Sequence to fold (631 residues):
Amino acid sequence: MIVDVCALLTIVVYVLVCPYTKVEESFNMQAIYDHLHFGLDIASYDHLQFPGVVPRTFLGSLAVSAVSFPFVAAAKAMQLEGVFQQMIVRIALGALTWLALVRLRRAVQTRFSRRAAQLFVLFTALQFHLCFYASRTLPNTFAVLLAALSFAMWLERRPVAALQILGAATVVVRCDMLILVASLALTALLGGEVAFFPTLLTGVATCAAALAATVAVDSFFWQRWLWPEGVVLFFNAVENRSALWGVSPWHWYVSAALPKALTFTLPWVGVCALLALLGGRKAKASDAADTADWDALLATSRAHCRSALYFLAPAVLFVGLYSYLPHKELRFVLPALPLFTVAAAVAADRLLALAPSAPLFPLSLLARGADARPQPTASWRWRALARGAQLALLASWGLMLLCSHALLLAAQHNYPGGEALEHLLHHFVRSEAAHHMHRDARRPAAHAADQARPRLEPTFVHVDNLAATTGVTRFLQERFVHHRHLRPTRERAAAAARRQVLPTQYSPHAYLNALPGHWRRVLAAEQAFHDAFLAASEPTEQSQSQAVDWVVAEDLLVYSKEEALLDVDKTDFDFLVTEQPDEFLQSGQFVLREAIAGFDRMRLTRFGPQPVLKNKLFILENAYPHVYAED
Fold:
């Protein structure tokens, strides 16, 4: 359907405009990078060096890696930058979330009507947060994906399957989904959809299987026996240590989070409740012969709205119970948003069904389904009320679009760390490598050995806490090769003549997130290992006389984000990305190269809401860098 494609395009646009990530997404994003680049070389994985506050499961990152692998492989073959590979990964996750929402849309169409399903997708696409978070590598995003599948099963009258999916999501992805699965189970039990003991046994078996899967996989990657969500549950529920990240009043979800997330979808949830309550009154039609038709329409509208409120009950209970936890964030209640959207879509659908004349454009483009029959005549008051409801629906969509635009403008400038690293790469690091390539190309080969050569080590960048939490990922580490002319020694000529690949005794993790001093020690040991290997090779008579231009190394952008190393000598780094540059500038060791602006606040102008930017990060270059040159 066209509306489904609109929702997918919305997700893709959000990825293209905001390709970077925040700290909450870093674990899964780094894990996906490690899966795609290191495979089973666990020693190279990021989480062993930066484990985070609590451990997380690798099952979600493995699924996204499997989907995005062929596309990332193609991007690497075309030598696309790391940020494009990161966008491919995010689009893959967004597509998976979109498919789950499409599955829910089909269930809405089966349970209510085709027009209600179309309205559900339109409300979802016009909301900002659900589509924005659909591609973000948060555990909450995986929870939204599984919750949407569960709700689809429930709407299709398969409540046991719905509870099984939510139970598995609770054990593997987000332990706080326990509140949602309990709410749905209670609703289904009181509604007579399930029996207690058979459902309990099925749920226990499902959770046991999910527990075995997550323990087996995550214990392998974490290198110890581990149930990640069990640790998270103990951390949040028992120790209540999440409160260290801030607390909010008990009503915050209702008074702030839901209005912000649903925007003008929320009033239509109230319309759904109103239609369910007032639907029992008979409407007075101008023609008595049409009374039966009005009664049938009102009865259908009342039944649909009450059914939608029934399905909304677990989401309301979920938000209410979650409000007792002191630490609150909007992303925690994301799994409940689809059910609120379903209720709003059903309300809008029933108002369009009760309209005595054809809806306004573009509402007339929506499917009518069972309501495609001559409507009964009505008084001018009822016609005016129906037309006003249609105008209110169109106005709601326009305001939602305006809110989404404003929030996207703010989000676009909310990742200064990623912007700083990309700016550093394109304007400083890469230009330096291009300078080396140009200089080598002009240098005569006969005198190459006597000239100064480009340095062999990477470009070292130190990022502080703000940069590390606002966009820095391993995908942004770039490699690019430049040619250098070397003295054609007998050993090197022999190895090159045999097209021999030099072995390495170090895994890639020795070069990632490394401090300069450590890297130089690794480089020295690696060079000694290579020299010993080449010295043991027997050169041929022909190879001894060959002069070889040999590509020997890569320029690698290496960043360090180890907050615990407070006493690290930052003068060893070539660049610093910091939010407090004064100390380094006053020392005279570093010079300011660029200031990166970030979002500060929104300002309302005559052209609409506009973001106000403020310098957040500063790129400093070492005026006296340490240069490691070949002997």
